[in-house]
Design brief:
homodimer, alpha+beta, 16 helices, Diverse_Enzym_Activities (chains A, B), Serine hydrolase (chains A, B)
Chain lengths: 466, 466
C-alpha cells in the first residue's frame, strides 16, 4: 500500500472499478504543489469533481438519491438519445451515468454469454417479512430503517434469504429482476472459488509458482510469486492507482481492457494479459494483503490454463447451468475475448441469491454439487488477519481477512462476502442461515465511507431473521 | 443501380454485410486504369483477394469446406489466443475468420439483449425424415444430395419443418443449437414486419413522408420519400458500395456503425442515424427496387419513433417472449445504443424455425397472436415485380419481388423468404406447409453465385416433404 493518499480520500475497494471511474486523459491534472497526502488528495478531489464524483471523504456531498433515479434522468430513452440523455464511452463512467451503465454494460462493451441452459429455473420460494421497516443504528448512531438505508446507499436491489426463502426483495432505480447488474469485484470471488476447487481436486497447486501455469509472466511481478499469494492477494505487484498520472498502472489496465477509450497516441498493451506482463514486483511477496484487481486477472488466466476452458464457459457449465438460474449472465471481454475475471461479471440479484444459498449450504443447491464443502469451509475460515491488518483496509473492514478472493468478517456468525466497488454484495451469514444480496450504484467508488453502516445493517438483518 | 460493375463480381445481397467485408483503409486500392466494369472488377477482385475473399464470379475458387471448419481452424481456443488463432477487430471480417464471428459477434461488439422471458420453450416436435440423402440437380445440372449441398455452401445449420414438425436438423462447423448466429439482412425482415403491423393497426401511414416521423432526415434522400418506398426499397438514395474508394458511402456506414474500426483521422458521423442524415437523393423515388441496408435503418428509426420503444425491446416483447423461444437473441448496437436494424440480429436456428412456423400459420404460434394475418398476407403477396426486375437483382432472383423487407418468390407455392448475405434464410413455403432455416457462413458475400441452386434445393425439399 505505497500510496501516501489520505485514507479518507482513497478509492478503497476495487482498482478495476476505480479505474473505470477515472478520466481517460491527463488534462484534468491538478497542479497542486503540496507534498504527500495533501497534494494527492487535492488532485484526486479535483479529478473526481470533474467526473461528477465526490472524493470518498467521511461525509462527502452526495447527490440526493431521488435526484439520480433513472426514471427521472431518462437516459437513452429517445431514438436516438441526444444531449444530456446520451450515454456512450465518453461519459459512461461519470456519475450519475454510471447508474445506467451498471444495468446496460453489454450495450457499451463486447461481452461473452454465461448461459443458464434449458433447465427450468430452480425454486426461490418467497416468505416475505416486513424487513423494510426494520430499524437499526447506523455508523453515526442515527436510527435508520432498512428501506432508508437501501435508498440512501443508492441500492438498485436488496434481497434477503433466510433458510433459503426470500424474506425480502426490493428493486429500485428501474432495475428489473431479470436484468443483469454489473458486479465489479464480486467477479473476483467466482474466480477465487474456481481456483480453490481446482486446488481441492489437486489440479492446481497453490504452492506452485504462477509461472508453472503461465510462463508468459516470467518477466513480471508474478515471476517468483506462488499461486496462493495470488489467490489471497499477498503478492507484491506495482499497480499504482494515481488518477492524475497517466503513467500510473491503473490507466494501463483501463486502456488495455477497453474499460476506458484509448488516447489517440496510445502505444500500450492491447490486451489485459499483455498488460499484466508489464507489471513489476513492488516489495516482498507474502507479507501484506494488497488488494489488486490484476491478481484476479492472473488467477483467471491460471484457471483457464489448468482447465483449458474459457472462464465464461466454466461459469456456465459449472455454476449457471447447475444452479437453475433464471437468466443468462455475462462477462465483459477485452479485444481478444479475454474476460475481465476481476471486475466484468453481470448477473441478476435473484441468481446471485442462488449462489449465496448454494454457498450457505456448503456447495450444494438444486440437487447438484457445485463446489466441494471443503472449498467453502476453507474460504469461510478466512486468510491471514495480520497480513490483512497490515494492508491498510482495516479501517473500513475491521477484523477482516481475505481468502480465495472472498472477504471474511471473522465475526461470531462466521460471515463472509463478495464485494464490488459501488456497493455490490453477496453476504453469507451461516449462523443466521441468511444470505443478503445488495446491488448498488453508489456515487462513491469504495466501501470506506459506507461499510461501517453496512456492517450494522448485516447485524440487524441477521438478528431480525433468526 | 448506378454501379458499372460486372454482375458476376458484385456483392449482391446485403450492403451492410458487404461493407463488413471491406477493408477499412484505401491502402489496397487497385491501380487499374481501365474503364467501367473491367476496372471495377479488377479493383474489387484485388481487394477481396487481400481479404481472403473471392469475388463472386460464376465459379470462384472457394476454400474446400472441410478446410474452413472451426474445429480445424481452432480460433480463440487458447488463453489468450495468439497468432493465426486470434480474431479481433483487425481481421474479424476476413475469411475464414468470419465463420467464427457469425457465432460470436457479441464478443467483438456492443449488443443489446432480446430476452425470451421466463416462459418454458414452446414445443418443436421432431419427426425426422432422411432428407440429408435427398438428391436433386444443382444449377449446373449435377446431382447433389441435401447434405452435399449444405456442406458445399458452408452451412452451419439446416432445419426443415413440415406441418410444424422438425423433419430435418443438421449442424456443422461447431455451431451449437443454443448459439445465436449472425443473420445479416434477415434482420431487415423483422423490421419490415414490425412496420407492416404498425401500418395495419393504423399507427403508421405508409403513404406519409418519412419526415413526418423522422424530421431529422429533412436534408437527406428521405426528405421527400414515402414510408412505403422505404419499406419496399424503392426510394432513391445514394449509397455507393465502392470498396476501393473511402469516400464511398459504404465505408461511412461501416465506420459510423462500428462494423469496421475507424481510420485514425476519422471525422465522419459518430452514429448510424447521424450517417443517414448525410445521404443525398440519387434519382427518382418509386421507380426501381434498389436494395439498400440504409432503408432498413430508416425504417427501424420510424418504428422506434411510432412506438417509443427500442427495437430490441419490441423484438423481445412482441416476438421473442410470445413465441416461447429457447434462447435469448441479441442485436448489435452502435456507439449510442442504436440497433443495426438492417443487419445486426443474432438468433438460434430453432428460434428462427418458430418464427417461420408462426408466419406459415398466418401470424399465430404458441397460442399467441404475433402479427395479424393480413400483415403476413400482404407480405407474401409481394411487391412490384417490374420495379424489382429493373433493379438488377433479377439474374440471381428471377421473378422475385420485395415487400415489407421480405423476398417474395412468386412461385406456385406462394413462397417468400428472409435472406442474409452469407447464406442465411428463413424460407416459408405455404403450399408445402414447409419452413426451412439455413444459416451459413459462405465465403462469397452475396447470393448471385449460389441462389440458382438454392432455388432448386427449396423445390426438392418441398417436393420431398409433401
Amino acid at each position: 500500500m505505497p500510496l501516501s493518499v489520505p485514507r479518507s480520500s482513497r478509492l478503497v475497494g476495487l482498482p478495476a472499478a476505480a479505474c473505470a471511474l477515472a478520466a481517460p486523459t491527463p488534462r484534468s491534472h491538478a497542479g497542486g504543489q503540496g507534498t504527500g497526502g495533501r497534494r494527492w488528495g487535492q488532485a484526486l478531489g479535483l479529478l473526481l469533481s470533474v467526473l461528477g464524483l465526490p472524493a470518498a471523504a467521511q461525509a462527502p456531498a452526495l447527490p440526493p438519491p431521488d435526484s439520480v433515479q433513472l426514471e427521472r434522468l431518462g437516459y437513452m430513452s429517445t431514438f436516438p438519445p441526444e444531449g444530456e440523455q446520451r450515454i456512450d464511452q465518453s461519459n459512461a463512467y461519470k456519475y450519475p451515468q454510471l447508474r445506467w451503465v451498471v444495468q446496460h454494460l453489454r450495450e457499451l462493451q463486447p461481452t461473452r454469454n454465461i448461459r443458464r441452459g434449458p433447465a427450468p429455473a430452480s425454486p426461490l420460494p418467497a416468505a416475505p417479512k416486513p424487513l423494510g421497516g426494520l430499524q437499526f443504528e447506523d455508523a453515526q448512531g442515527q436510527k435508520i430503517t432498512v428501506d432508508e438505508w437501501a435508498r440512501s446507499t443508492y441500492t438498485d436491489a436488496l434481497l434477503v434469504l433466510h433458510q433459503g426463502r426470500l424474506v425480502y426483495e426490493r428493486y429500485d432505480n428501474s432495475l428489473q429482476p431479470s436484468t443483469p447488474h454489473l458486479l465489479f469485484s464480486v467477479t473476483k470471488s467466482f474466480t477465487g472459488l474456481m481456483a480453490a476447487q481446482l486446488a481441492h481436486e489437486g489440479r492446481l497447486d497453490p504452492q506452485a509458482l504462477v509461472t508453472r501455469y503461465v510462463p508468459e509472466l516470467a518477466g513480471s511481478a508474478w515471476a517468483d510469486m506462488k499461486v496462493r499469494e495470488v489467490m489471497d492477494m499477498t503478492g507484491a505487484v506495482r499497480f499504482r492507482e494515481n488518477y492524475t498520472d497517466p503513467s500510473s498502472e491503473i490507466f494501463g489496465y483501463a486502456w488495455a481492457s477497453g474499460l476506458l477509450p484509448r488516447p489517440p497516441a496510445y502505444q500500450g498493451a492491447n490486451t489485459v494479459y499483455d498488460f499484466l506482463k508489464t507489471l513489476p514486483k513492488d516489495g516482498e511477496h507474502d507479507q501484506v494483503f494488497t488488494y489488486r484487481t490484476v491478481h484476479s486477472e492472473v488467477l483467471g488466466w491460471i484457471v483457464s490454463r489448468v482447465t483449458g476452458r474459457h472462464w465464461a464457459d466454466l461459469m456456465s457449465q459449472q455454476i449457471w447451468q447447475k444452479l437453475g438460474m433464471e437468466e443468462d449472465a455475462y462477462v465483459m471481454v477485452d479485444r481478444v475475448g479475454t474476460p475481465l475475471q476481476g471486475a466484468g461479471l453481470n448477473a441478476t440479484a435473484r441468481d446471485l441469491a442462488r449462489v449465496g444459498e448454494m454457498l450457505r449450504l456448503g456447495g450444494r443447491f438444486n440437487g447438484q454439487k457445485i463446489f466441494d464443502a471443503a472449498v467453502i469451509e476453507d474460504t469461510a475460515r478466512g486468510g491471514d488477519r495480520d497480513k490483512f491488518k497490515a494492508g491498510g483496509l482495516q479501517a473500513a473492514r475491521p477484523g477482516y481477512s481475505y481468502r480465495n478472493q472472498w472477504w471474511v468478517l471473522h465475526n461470531a456468525d462466521g460471515a463472509y462476502e463478495a464485494a464490488g466497488v459501488h456497493g455490490q454484495f453477496i453476504h453469507i451469514n451461516p449462523a443466521a442461515q441468511m444470505v443478503v444480496i445488495k446491488l448498488s450504484s453508489h456515487p462513491v467508488a469504495g466501501a470506506a465511507f459506507t461499510h461501517a453502516t453496512t456492517l450494522k445493517a448485516w447485524a440487524a438483518l441477521a438478528q431480525a431473521v433468526r
